[in-house]
């Protein structure tokens, strides 16, 4: 038995004991609320032994307890929502009740009651507490709650959860919170993981979809919760709780519609293309009692269908006649004649129809069907059970991957479908997502002071890709002027793509999640103790055969048209992944996370609460790895630069991770009008598991990947390759020059690409500290609230290139002295594998952020409610790990010297300033009518950007080299350049580059320096979204029936003026203004300026941004009709 097994078994035994005798909760599994407070007499003396009951009036669910010797009571796990009625009785005092109490998800409603002496006769005294009472929840850190009223009344066209989590002041308006990568969030529904845990993008939901908004009762976004029960994130913890049935039958049937006629048709007064687009949503929800006060049900079903440009995979680009792009009219530079020639050659020479090259994506459809059912059972006065099942199935088409492939890759701004390139229809792919989840939760009152919560969840998530193409190679064809052979220039820009999408063949991801949680809560005196343990298991299977049908890259259309003829030459690049016979094609990761924790919530007084606790987690990998001895003995480099080897037969070491936390809340005046709160503590999260599955996928024991890291890496054998439609032709007919490349069995050689994991790797861990103030302005419905949050990375995550050695030369011009690599040997450490073909997942302690928010909120009054927040965020990271696999996450980060040279720069999601506001007003009139008007405002920069060179600047076969900004453009040497038949002299380019710098405030202010990664900001954008609801209601018997008409308009300002609310984008290639045309042996480069396409002309760039001229930036309207009862 190894040490890891012993340690895990010891920890598991401890965990089991905790589950039997105490209680656990895991991964932020907060599904309920709580109510607590103090009971005193008129003199302020605490009353021990008072009887307290809380009744959830819609369902009759009753909770009971008695006060401690300190006069304190608590109901630790109550249904969220309300209203509640809390009643207190004590011998010798009049019975008193407080009504209209609402309990928010994960927060405590504090209800203090003073009893009056009343002899032996009991008398009920009702004290109303407003549903929107400010600061009623006992939060300590930064958190936002989105309740049913906000879900119902605030604007949304997509009806997605992201439309509401953006209400968090710490959000950047997307999926980043506090400047952190969205993949570090944790999203749960009723305590069950509902994550995009595999992490191919930062969308928090699997497949980009999820529950219907109609199924959700409340959403909470936690940034700094100091409750040790909450874990699993280093970004934000997003918890959603589904609706429950009550004693009253309620329901709704609804439909929503949007098409191209409900979208804007002008941008800045100019007509734009408005292709056909349709979005239809149909659904219903129903809840009620099966047995009054005892057993309740809730069901929801919804179907969404989108077609045309309503689908994400819309392609509006058209071929040009003259080879000149006009992005404003969606005309690509790719010539129609070239596309026709390639298509005809594929059909006539190879018997393959690649499909259309224009308008093909506009007829696609995207479908999502969701279903949810929930049962709530009040077993008896002391036990409540909730069981929920939901299922989501979606199918969505996508355009071909933008730029990934064998190195060197096409620059990110010039992808396969863009102003510079076009792709045929068969390069598309479809993704089918199936999500199933079940949750069971039992809340028990063991004694008046001891309660227990048991929670078990299981979810299964599957994402399977398919292609409209028959099996055929993926083909990329470059633009002849951009990919020059044997010149040392590695710039490659795509021009035409055809064939089977390179990441789709056999692509399937399976993810099983199981969590068991049990919480024990004990109240004594002024203390409320929580002790817990939990166990989570995640199991992933990733079948990933990139370039599975083979991949060919050609330098020009002419070279590709020669395939199959006597004049055929070798391709520019080739790649292939093939499985080994008899091996399980799914790369496995089985991850366990046992946790134990204990916490004390100490009410030092009825005004000051201190919460302190500690959580211990022990990440452990439960599956074994098949070792590749050839890799184990491969001499590579460590982070510090010394030679070392890496163990491929083991996962990272098992270690206990401790997360101590302390938080406080002080009611400074004793009337909830001034609250000071804050805390500090450690939070542990997770990484996208795609990075972990990359290791078994790329070890060469399940499959082998032929994917050269550079042109130099394939140079010894590429000359013997010719185009073949059979994906395994070169595997079965391997040239002598490539015998060590096309490995026939797992132990015959080294794979071409490795994605290793450091044995000391740890899951992300941060130290987060916050301080907040809430102040109610006397005599008004307004309050001011503010939060400051500081986060320091303890264990941040990055990828390290382990086959890159230190340079011996540097560039030698102007002020640029970055590393220079005149040949592959200058940066390749071990010649047995490509210099850029070994990535290692490891940790760094670098990284920090600060987020400050201040806001004005308006309590619901006379039909109005609203808020206005300002947020400032500064977040520094060494990398944002952009990429869908380990290799791309390593090579895609803009850098000065090489991808291992990671410095602290602004993160992708760190927008320095953001304004966010909401305002809603509802008025009833004419006895049967009600109108609601709601507005959402977001003001922020549209993102961050980096300035880099177009292509490889310093000769290491990787682009993303950060731009050096000369003090004057005259310090650079330019060469004449001809693009699309337009010649630009060296002098013209030098003058244009000087004007380019001068016209850009960021570049002009940083002359003589390197541009920073994410150093500049995209332009500021003000946008308003609007919602109108018209209710027509009447009472039939005792029930209210409502017909509701709705109109949601995103970017409503654009409806008033086509100049308002227009988003901008980077002109393709404009933030990559220079490319290296040549370089001397001692590192002195000659440049050409990167020409761009503007207004149908080939010009030198003078600005970076342009207005987006599609319906994605105009106003869009969603109309709906709903019946409620």
UniProtKB/TrEMBL annotation:
It is found in: Cell outer membrane. One of its GO terms (molecular function) is siderophore uptake transmembrane transporter activity. It is a multi-pass membrane protein. Its main location: membrane. Residues 241-1054 form the TonB-dependent transporter Oar-like beta-barrel domain. It holds the Pfam family OMP_b-brl_4. It comes from the Bacteria. GO terms for cellular component: cell outer membrane. Residues 1-28 form the signal peptide. GO terms for biological process: siderophore transmembrane transport. Keywords: Cell outer membrane, Membrane, Signal, Transmembrane, Transmembrane beta strand, Transport. PANTHER family: OAR PROTEIN, TONB-DEPENDENT OUTER MEMBRANE RECEPTOR. This is OmpA-related protein. It comes from Dyadobacter fermentans (strain ATCC 700827 / DSM 18053 / CIP 107007 / KCTC 52180 / NS114).
């Amino acid at each position: 038995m190894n040490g890891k097994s012993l340690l895990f078994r010891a920890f598991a035994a401890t965990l089991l004991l905790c589950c039997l005798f105490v209680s656990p909760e895991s991964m932020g599994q907060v599904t309920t609320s709580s109510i607590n407070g103090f009971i005193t007499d008129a003199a302020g003396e605490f009353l021990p032994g008072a009887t307290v009951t809380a009744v959830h009036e819609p369902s009759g669910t009753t909770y009971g307890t008695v006060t401690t010797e300190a006069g304190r009571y608590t109901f630790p796990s109550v249904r969220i929502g309300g209203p509640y009625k809390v009643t207190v009785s004590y011998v010798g005092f009049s019975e008193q009740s407080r009504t209209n109490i609402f309990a928010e998800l994960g927060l405590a409603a504090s209800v203090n009651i003073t009893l009056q002496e009343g002899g032996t006769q009991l008398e009920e005294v009702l004290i109303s507490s407003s549903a929107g009472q400010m600061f009623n929840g006992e939060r300590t850190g930064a958190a936002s709650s989105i309740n049913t009223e906000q879900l119902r009344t605030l604007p949304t066209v997509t009806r997605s959860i992201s439309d509401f989590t953006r209400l968090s002041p710490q959000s950047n308006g997307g999926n980043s919170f506090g400047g952190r990568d969205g993949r570090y969030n944790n999203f749960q529904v009723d305590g069950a993981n509902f994550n995009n845990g595999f992490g191919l993008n930062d969308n928090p939901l699997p497949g980009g979809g999820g529950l219907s908004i109609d199924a959700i009762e409340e959403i909470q976004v936690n940034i700094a919760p100091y409750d040790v029960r909450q874990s699993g994130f280093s970004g934000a913890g997003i918890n959603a709780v589904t609706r429950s049935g009550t004693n009253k039958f309620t329901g709704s049937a609804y439909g929503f519609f949007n098409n191209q006629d409900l979208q804007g048709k002008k941008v800045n007064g100019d007509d734009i293309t408005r292709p056909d687009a349709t979005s239809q949503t149909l659904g219903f929800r129903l809840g009620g009692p099966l047995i009054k006060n005892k057993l309740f049900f809730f069901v929801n079903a919804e179907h969404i269908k989108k077609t045309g440009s309503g689908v994400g995979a819309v392609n509006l680009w058209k071929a040009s006649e003259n080879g000149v792009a006009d992005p404003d009219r969606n005309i690509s530079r790719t010539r129609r004649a070239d596309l026709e020639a390639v298509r005809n050659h594929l059909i006539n020479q190879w018997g393959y129809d690649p499909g259309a090259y224009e308008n093909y994506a506009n007829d696609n459809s995207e479908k999502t069907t969701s279903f949810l059912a929930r049962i709530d059972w009040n077993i008896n006065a002391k036990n409540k059970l909730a069981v929920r099942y939901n299922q989501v199935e979606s199918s969505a088409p996508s355009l071909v991957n933008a730029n990934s492939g064998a190195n060197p890759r096409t620059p990110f701004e010039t992808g396969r479908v863009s102003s510079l390139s076009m792709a045929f229809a068969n390069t598309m792919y479809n993704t089918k997502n199936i999500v199933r989840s079940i949750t069971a939760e039992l809340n028990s009152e063991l004694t008046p002071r001891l309660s227990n919560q048991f929670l078990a969840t299981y979810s299964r998530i599957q994402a399977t890709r398919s292609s409209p193409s028959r099996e055929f190679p993926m083909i990329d064809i470059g633009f002849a002027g951009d990919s020059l052979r044997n010149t040392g220039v590695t710039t490659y820009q795509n021009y035409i793509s055809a064939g089977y999408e390179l990441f789709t063949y056999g692509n399937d991801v399976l993810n099983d999640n199981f969590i068991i949680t049990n919480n024990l809560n004990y109240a004594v005196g002024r203390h409320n103790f929580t002790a817990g343990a939990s166990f989570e298991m995640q199991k992933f299977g990733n079948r990933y055969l990139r370039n599975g049908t083979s991949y060919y890259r050609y330098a020009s259309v002419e070279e590709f048209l020669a395939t199959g003829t006597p004049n055929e030459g070798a391709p520019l690049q080739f790649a292939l992944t093939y499985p080994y016979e008899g091996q399980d094609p799914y790369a496995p990761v089985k991850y366990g996370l046992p946790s134990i924790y204990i916490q004390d919530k100490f009410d030092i007084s009825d005004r000051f609460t201190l919460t302190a606790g500690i959580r211990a987690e022990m990440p452990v990998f439960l599956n074994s790895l098949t070792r590749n001895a050839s890799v184990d003995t491969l001499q590579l480099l460590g982070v510090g630069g010394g030679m070392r080897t890496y163990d491929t037969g083991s996962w990272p070491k098992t270690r206990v991770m401790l997360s101590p936390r302390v938080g406080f809340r002080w009611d400074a005046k004793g009337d909830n009008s001034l609250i000071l709160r804050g805390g500090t503590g450690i939070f542990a999260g997770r990484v996208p598991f795609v990075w972990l599955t990359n290791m078994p996928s790329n070890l060469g024991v399940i499959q082998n990947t032929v994917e050269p890291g550079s042109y130099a890496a394939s140079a010894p054998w590429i000359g013997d390759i010719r185009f073949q439609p059979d994906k395994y032709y070169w595997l079965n007919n391997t040239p002598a020059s490539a015998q060590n490349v096309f490995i026939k069995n797992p132990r015959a050689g080294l794979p071409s690409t490795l994605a290793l994991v450091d044995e000391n790797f740890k899951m992300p861990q941060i130290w987060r500290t916050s301080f907040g103030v809430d102040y109610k302005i006397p005599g008004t419905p307004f309050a001011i609230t503010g939060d400051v949050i500081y986060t320091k990375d303890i264990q941040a995550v990055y990828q390290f290139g382990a086959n890159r050695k230190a340079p011996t030369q540097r560039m030698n011009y102007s002020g640029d002295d970055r590393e220079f690599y005149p040949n592959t040997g200058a940066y390749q450490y071990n010649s047995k594998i490509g210099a850029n073909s070994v990535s290692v997942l490891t940790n760094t302690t670098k990284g920090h952020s600060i987020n400050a928010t201040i806001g004005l909120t308006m309590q619901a009054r006379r039909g109005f409610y609203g808020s206005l927040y300002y947020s400032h965020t500064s977040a520094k990271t060494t990398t944002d790990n952009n990429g869908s696999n380990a290799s791309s996450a390593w090579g895609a980060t803009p850098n000065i010297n090489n991808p291992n040279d990671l410095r602290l720069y602004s993160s992708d999601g760190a927008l320095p300033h953001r304004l966010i506001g909401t305002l809603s007003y509802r008025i009833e009139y004419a006895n049967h009518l009600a109108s609601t008007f709601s507005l959402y405002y977001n003001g922020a920069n549209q993102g961050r950007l980096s300035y880099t060179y177009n292509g490889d600047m310093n000769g290491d076969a990787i682009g993303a080299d950060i731009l050096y900004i000369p003090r004057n453009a005259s310090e650079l040497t330019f060469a004449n350049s001809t693009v699309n038949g337009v010649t630009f002299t060296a002098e013209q380019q030098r003058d244009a580059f000087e004007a380019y710098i001068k016209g850009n405030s960021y570049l002009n202010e940083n002359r003589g320096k390197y541009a920073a990664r994410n150093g500049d900001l995209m332009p500021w954008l003000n946008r308003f979204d609007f919602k109108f609801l018209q209710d027509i209601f009447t009472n039939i018997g005792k029930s209210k029936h409502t017909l509701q008409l709705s109109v949601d308009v995103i970017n409503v300002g654009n409806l008033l003026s086509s100049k308002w609310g227009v988003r901008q984008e980077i002109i393709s290639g404009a933030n990559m203004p220079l490319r290296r045309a040549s370089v001397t042996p001692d590192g002195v480069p000659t440049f050409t300026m990167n020409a761009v396409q503007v207004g149908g002309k080939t010009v030198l760039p003078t600005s970076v941004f342009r207005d987006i001229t599609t319906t994605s930036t105009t106003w869009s309207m969603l109309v709906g009709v709903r019946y409620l009862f």
